[in-house]
Amino acid sequence: MVPPNENNAKKIWTELRKYLPVFALFKSDRASIDTDPEAQDPLKAAVKEAIKAKEAELTAITEYVRSEVRKITNSTLEKLREMDSSLRNATFNPTFTPPKWDSLFKASITSDGDIPINKRGSGVRRLILLNFFRAKAEQLARETGRSAVIYAVEEPETSQHPSNQRMLLRALVDLSSEAQVIISTHTPMLARALPDSCLRYIHIGPDKSRSILKGGPETNDMFAQSLGVLPDNTVKLFIGVEGPNDIIFLQAIASALRNDGVDVFDLERTELEGEVIFFPLGGNNLVRWSSRLEPLKRPEFHLCDRDVTPPKPPKYQTYIDEVNARECCKARSTAKKEMENYLHRDAIIAAYKELGINLVIKSNFGPFDDVPREVARLVYEVSESPKVWDDLLEEMKSEKESRAKRILCSRATKHMTKTLLDELDPDEEVLEWFEDMKSLTSEKGVRE
Q1: CATH topology of domain 237-335+428-440
Q2: Where do the structural domains in the chain lie, given as residue ranges?
Q3: Which of 187, 213, 388, 430 could form a disulfide with 201 if both were Cys (CB 3.0 to 4.6 A apart)?
Q4: Which H helix or E strand runs over 257?
């Protein structure tokens, strides 16, 4: 066995680093100015890349200047020799230091009206620098050849308007489809917008010992007490879906349709303004929610996956009937297997093309195909060829299916248009979901 020494340890660490994710921490207690490393490093990198692209021209400039310096030096020496013959054998050797081009450019950030970032409000500065922080982390991952990134963000709500808090959370949830995201928060809105499986509570016991508790019924009571969750009178509608990916799906497809000129319920605005609250109800735990929201006296819209093929009734039909029996509440089941079955193949192909993966999907998936599983298989066969999907362990298949589901809901939905949706949903079922939401938020719908 080779005895350990400093050189061996360094070599081992160099090799191990290739397999470890990049960890990037964005702190909450910071000045947030445009001289922060998170802002400066991506800008400096951009300057270096621009200079590298013009390297030949800059080298020519350097050589031209060097030549001109030599000319004037030689001319000076000749004049000296004319003046003093004793300097006939003298030599001048000019020392020429090539410029560091990247140090000549000082980049900073200005916004509308040429206002420097450090003159903007703290919330805007922090929001901008958070995204520079993301750019820096991705740059580091590329430079080190590591594809995995863990983003840790301390209190993303700091200095942010409530609508920006919701927008930021949606962006971080979207980012979690590609990387692991860890946030710490003391804001009830952020905590309640995430599913139980994503929540962790750091509990300090009477003996000062610390334990990390996973989100769930008992832990959620601790969250409520710790964060001081109070009733929110601005809420006009609760939307219950089975999981966080369904939330992302509805948000993204509503925005995509509105961008395509379709007058559907403005889910983005109402959610950002706190008028709509999503609840990921958790599949098999749906029955526990059939009356939990009733005491809050707000309209409710619930959307469940059908899961089973006709003529069998939808999997959660009993739950749907219970919700529909309540005043100002509407529950539906998808006519297809689940939400991903409403995505057109063109939108799926476009989403993966953004990620550098060229999928070939010859036709749209059927109404009861397992779309996330099928897409995961296609991605694996393209990316890992000649490996075979059927040779994978079921655990690995489920992991890849979960990633495919996140990409489908967060990315493919953004490529949907009314034309593509009509091809898959001629009965306009998806539009009816948003019409139900709109009608429930009307003045008539709110229960006082």
Answers
A1: Rossmann fold (3.40.50)
A2: 49-103, 195-230, 237-335+428-440, 340-424
A3: 213
A4: helix 244-259
